[in-house]
Amino acid sequence: MPQLTLTISHNINIDVINFKNLFSQIHEALRAVPNMDVNTAQSGVIQETFSYVGFDNPKATKVYLQLYWMENEERAVIKPVLGKTLLEILENNIVPEVVGQGLICIPRVRIANLGSLNQGYFIGGIINSTM
């Protein structure tokens, strides 16, 4: 089950972006991935409430797409081509909308491994209390 998260900075007006069309194109591109069940893909957008890009240039933006999957040899081979395809989708869909708002947009794509099958994962935190 692939997971896609698009993180965008607080200074982008998201009302003018067609996310449904964007993720439709991304999911279509994922069909080329060996043994990828696109029907189980989970995608979403996170808009930051605070963003600090570069040296706090108010016109600089963050447009960062992350794809997490279970990696295997077949997928490792296709990763560079898929990364370029995903970047082109962002450049053709998000960049014009962001630049049209008078902002600077340099999108980024990350494809990362969720881990190995049957691999355990645990993360814990410290209990914060004032007693």
UniProtKB/TrEMBL annotation:
Tell me the superkingdom of the source: Bacteria
UniProt xrefs under InterPro entries: Tautomerase/MIF_sf
Recorded protein name is 5-carboxymethyl-2-hydroxymuconate Delta-isomerase
Originating species: Legionella parisiensis
Q: What is the lineage of its organism?
A: Bacteria, Pseudomonadati, Pseudomonadota, Gammaproteobacteria, Legionellales
